[in-house]
Structures are given as structure tokens and as C-alpha cells.
Design goal:
Number of helices: 2
Number of strands: 0
Number of domains: 1
Shape: elongated
Structural class: mainly alpha
Length: about 90
């Protein structure tokens, strides 16, 4: 078990988390900006107006990118099984 292997495994794990979470976070951010602009223009400051569209948007994005997320996670776990033999010995 070398430091390079541990760093590679950790880097792979972080990149997989970023790849899987980025579409959902971007959807929430874009919807939040749009709702904030609408709230600023209409001067309506209701918290549920920002929360409900974000939840709906994130769930819809999850439906669209779930196949991509499953393939990324499957690839990640396949790579992790390949690293197991190197980590043990």
C-alpha cells in the first residue's frame, strides 16, 4: 500500500462525488438565481417560493441524470474492486 495508490483512490472518490453531484447542484443554483431575480423584481420575499421550485427542479434533474449517475458509480466501484488487491498486498 503506497501513498500514490491511496492518493489515487481518494482522488477518484472525490471526482466521482463531484461528477454525480454537479448536475443537481447546478440545477438548484440556476433555479435559485432565477427565483431570486423574480423575488427582487416583484419584492415578494417568501422563503417557500425559493424552496419548492428548487426541490422540484432537483428531483426532475435527478430523473434526467440518474442513468449517468448509476454508470459513474458502477465504474467507480469496478475501479475500487481493482484497487483492493493492490491495497491488501
Amino acid at each position: 500500500m503506497t501513498q500514490e495508490l491511496i492518493i489515487t483512490v481518494m482522488r477518484d472518490a472525490v471526482m466521482t462525488v463531484l461528477k454525480c453531484s454537479l448536475p443537481l447542484l447546478l440545477a438548484a443554483m440556476v433555479i435559485g438565481i432565477i427565483v431570486s431575480i423574480i423575488q427582487a423584481a416583484t419584492q415578494v420575499n417568501e422563503q417557500t417560493l425559493a424552496f419548492v421550485p428548487k426541490i422540484i427542479g432537483v428531483f426532475l434533474m435527478l430523473l434526467f441524470v440518474s442513468g449517468y449517475m448509476v454508470s459513474e458509480l458502477t465504474d467507480f466501484f469496478t475501479r475500487m474492486y481493482g484497487y483492493v488487491a493492490q491495497l491488501i498486498f
